[in-house]
Amino acid sequence: MLILHRLKVKSEGPKLVPFFKATCVYFVLWLPSSSPSWVSALIKCLPIFCLWLFLLAHGLGFLLTHPSATRIFVGLVFSAIGDAFLIWQDQGYFVHGMLMFAVTHMLYASAFGMRPLGLRTGLLMVILSGLCYAFLYPNLTGAFTYIVGVYVAIIGFMGWRAMAGLQLVGAAWRWTELAAGTGALLFIVSDLTIALDKFCFPVPYSRALIMSTYYAAQMLIALSAVESREPVEDYRLSKAK
Question: Does the first or last residue of the chain, that is N or C, have fewer Cβ atoms within 10 Å of its Cβ?
Fold first, then answer.
C-alpha cells in the first residue's frame, strides 16, 4: 500500500512543474510590495493559476464527478482574487482580500467534509483559535475586532475539517489526508503571520514566511483532491462500512 501511495505521489510531480516554476519566478523577481501594479498581481497569482491547471489536467470529467475537487478548484479561484486584492491592501482592499479567503476556507472545509467528525481535533482547534484571537484582540480596533474574529473562526473550522480524518497509521492511512492537514496548518501559519505583522508587531522576513507557507499550503490542498477518481463521498461511505 505504501508503494502505491509513493507511485501516486510521484505521478503527480510532473503536473506540478509549472507551479514550481511560477513560484520561483515570484521569489526571483520579488517585486516591491510598496509599488502595487497589475504586473505584480499577475506574478503573485501565477502559481495559483498553475494549480488551476494542475487540477484541470486530471480532466474536466474528474472535476465534474468529484464534488470535493470542484470545491477546491473554486476555492483556488477565490484565492487568486484575494491575492489580487491584497496587492492593493494599503489602498483599502485588505478586507476585500479577507472576504475572498474566507470564502476559500469555507469551500475547502466543505470539500474536506464532515466525516469523520473528529470532536477532539475540533476542540483542539477551538482552543488554538481562541488563543490566537485573544492574542490579537488588544491590537484590533473598529470593525477589525469583529472581522478578524469571524475570520479566525472560519479558518479554524477549515483546519478542523482538514485534520479530522487524518490517520498516520493503519490501513485507512491516505497521503491526501496528510496533504490536506499539512496544507491547512501551513495556511493558518501564513495567515497568522499576516495578522501579527499587520496588527501587532513587524515580523522579520514576514513576506518570505507568508508567501512560502501560503504557496506550500495551496499546493498541498490541491494535491489532496486527486488520490482517487471515484467520487469522494462514495469513498468515505465505503470506508465507513
Answer: C
What are the strands, taking DSSP E only, across the chain?
none
pLDDT at 197 over 80: yes
Contacts of 214 (CB under 8 A, 6+ apart): 186, 187, 190
Task: Report in angstroms the alpha-carbon separations of 100 from 1, 10, 60, 78, 137.
Answer: 38, 32, 24, 5, 22
State the Cα–Cα distance between residues 91 and 110, nearest whole angstrom. Answer: 32
Residues belonging to the chain: 241
What is the average pLDDT value for the chain, to the nearest integer? 90
pTM of the model: 0.91
What is the Cα–Cα distance from 34 to 107, expressed in whole angstroms?
31
Q: Which amino acid is it at 217?
A: A
Residue of 195, 189, 39 whose CA lies nearest to 128: 189
- Residue 182 C-alpha cell reads as 499539512
Cell of 168: 498516520
B/e letters for 22-54, b = 16+ CB within 10 Å, e = fewer, are bbeebeeeebeeeebeeebbebbbbbbbbbbeb
